[in-house]
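Reader question, answered in our methods column.
A reader sent in the components of a multi-part assembly and asked whether the whole thing could be modeled at once rather than chain by chain. We filled in our standard form and ran it. Here is what they sent:
COMPLEX SIZE: two components
ENTRIES:
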Amino acid sequence: MPATAASDEHAMKHAILILETLIPARRDASALPPTAYQLVKEGVRDKAEVIYITNESSLGDFGMDGMNFGSKDGVVPSQMFTESLFQERGVKAILAAHVERVDPGVVHYELLDGTKGEQSFDFAMLLPPFRGVDLKAFDAEGTDITDEVFAPSGFMKVDADYSPKPYEQWEASDWPKTYQSVKYDNVWAAGIAFAPPHQMSRPQQSPNGTMIAPAPPRTGMPSGVIGRAVAKTIAERIKHGGAGKVHTASMAEMGAACIASAGTGWRDGKAAAMTVFPIIPDKQKYGQSGRDTKETYGEIGLSAHWMKVMLHHLFIYKAKARPFWYLIPE
Amino acid sequence: MDDNVTTFPDAPQPDPKQIKARTSVLKQGWRFAVLNLKMITMVNKGHH
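And here is the structure of the entire assembly that came back:
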């Protein structure tokens, strides 16, 4: 049977999708530059159409309500930074989309305006939902206290302000400091285990009632810093009982760094390095942007690739507890 | 292609000088040092 023009075109160009998760969750635009790079390296970039489908309302939101990078030329919004990176690499996007389901070769999604769409693909990478493990909790009498200990997302409730309030009233002080369980004073939820009080990005809902917004990131550096603070608190508790010092690590008072690889090689490697301080926007302290633009910046280049290689080896060194490992920060 | 697929034609693109600077060993060596200092400052500022 003769092939149609459409099927010929389809055969020549494969659609590759990087899918957002099935529920509002962690987004990962950092997967795009290495994907595009690897296709170029293998000599098949011209045969592939790379599309990123995300619940972010704009690129560069990162689940952090976007950032303003300080630079010598002024402030560069993370949206502009990321869009530039995508355009330069010929990567396309479907924004503000909630993935409803994935069938063989086609993904179905809903947009913020309530309309439905579908995108065919030949290859897809699906990021899994970011949620707790749905543990059940019971008290000594056997009563189910799951709702008291865990949030609906499956993460543990800690010393955060979980009272529902509109986006305009969100404050940095809503976020936890000690990560101690609200129910038990000898239980902590360090790193990604704690339930965030709310998102960082402005919550958005389609006319059909579907929430379409990314969840706040707290993996990597924040998890390490929080874990260290909780471990210090436990050590104090063992040594001094209830009088022991309680260590804190609020995400509203710490920064984070992310390096997205965009190519390997000591001489021609590339990566995008981004830092943010603080992670949780604090508009009372830093004005409308909520962040310190001296400590919040992003740049692309070989130096960021070197930095990524260096951190890779340093963190493995630290994980193996080699001499002076404790000097390496999280 | 799905009508909802977006490209970013208005996004600023680097000029040839900027692209070259991204892989210049001298310039990137300097940026590597600056990046390290900035990250150490940020880490120390946030630790408790």
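What stands out: The mean pLDDT of chain B is 88. The interface with chain A takes residues 1-14, 21-25, 27-29, 31-32, 35-36, 38-43, 45-48 of chain B (CB under 8 Å).
Send us your own complexes using the same form.
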